[in-house]
Design a protein that fits this description.
binds glyceraldehyde-3-phosphate; alpha/beta
């Protein structure tokens, strides 16, 4: 019944075959859909806020909405900054109630990523906040099918070990084949399990994180497109592969796009079937229900984190 860090969540998940769902939040309906699903599934949960989400909703609103969600449901929530790109942004979140921050130095050279991550870790730990960092670059649209591109961008296991030892970071996001957004890579979906197992063997006590873990479920893309959208039929990593990844040290799995697609498909459907409707509650309510159904599916069928509370 509080804001908590992910420390205890990951401790349990690391030695089990499930992962904690980390879902992106931008407004009240999304927060309510996610926490109601977590409550019904009796699951541990991470709510994450990107810099864009903070700008859209304003920090105080999101913080108060998350506090309200905890009060309303009685569940524990880890409030996490997603893709923090500077020490200043991480510090601001740490100083304003976040229990976890990500410092994303993955685009920086190795030594610079280490220096920036270390700076955030020192400040965060002095305030009882945990830190996620990232090493390697997620696959671009064309990358994952090309072996050279994979080797150039995916996380190098020996570097992962050196990185966590030198930074003292609490969890590490790795690049093994997932990619962000609805425009996933072309070709057969692919996860480099050999690389993941090697990383996990070298740093068995470090919780690993997968970003870009939406599957871009065709049913929802088609539903959006039916009402005039033009989202390409891209494929994300199949859900079975995510379930498998949870067995090799992956403790946190990030999902945003699948929630966006589910909510948008439902809102488009309602407005198309009821063009006379103009009460926002009449379409945002069903949108919230669609988020809840999707999160329950992810928790129960994919992440296997039901009844982990
Ligand atoms: O990985 C990024 C998340 O999906 C957040 O996206 O920056 O559009 O809020 P955003
Ligand atoms: P998706 O775009 O695949 O949902 O990934 C979300 C994410 O990684 C947030 O950090
Ligand atoms: Zn991400």
């Amino acid at each position: 019944m509080a804001l908590v860090t992910s420390e205890k969540m990951f401790e349990k998940a690391l030695h089990a075959d499930y992962a904690i769902g980390a879902f992106n939040v931008n407004n009240m309906e999304i927060i309510q859909g996610i926490v109601d699903a977590a409550e019904e599934e009796n699951a541990q949960i991470i709510l994450q806020v990107s810099a864009g989400a903070r700008k859209y909703a304003k920090p105080a609103y999101l913080r108060k909405l998350v506090e309200a969600a905890i009060e309303d449901t009685g569940i524990d929530v880890c409030l996490h900054l997603d893709h923090g790109d500077s020490f200043e942004l991480c510090k601001d979140c740490i100083d304003n109630g976040f229990t976890s921050v990500m410092i994303d130095g993955s685009k920086l050279p190795f030594e610079e990523n280490i220096a920036l991550t270390k700076q955030v870790v020192e400040y965060a730990h002095s305030k009882g906040v945990v830190v996620e960092a990232e090493l390697g670059k997620l696959a671009g649209i064309e990358d994952a099918v090309n072996v050279d591109a994979r080797d150039a961008s995916f996380t190098v296991p020996s570097e992962a070990k050196e990185f966590v030892e030198r930074t003292g970071v609490d969890s590490l996001a790795v690049a093994i084949g997932t990619s962000h957004g609805a425009y996933k890579f072309k070709g057969t979906p692919y996860l480099d399990f050999e690389r993941l197992k090697e990383i996990h063997a070298l740093i068995p006590d470090v919780p690993l994180v997968l970003h870009g873990a939406s599957t871009v479920i065709p049913e929802f893309v088609q539903e959006c497109n039916k009402y005039g959208g033009n989202i390409p039929g891209a494929q994300g990593v199949p859900e079975e592969m995510l379930t498998e990844a949870a067995k090799y040290g992956v403790c946190k799995i990030n999902i945003d796009t699948d929630l966006r697609l589910a909510m948008t498909a439902k809102i488009r459907q309602v407005l198309s079937e009821h063009p006379e409707e103009f009460d926002p509650r009449k379409y945002l309510g069903p949108g919230r229900d669609a988020i809840k159904d999707m999160v329950k599916h992810k928790i129960h069928d994919v992440l296997k984190s039901s009844n982990t509370k």
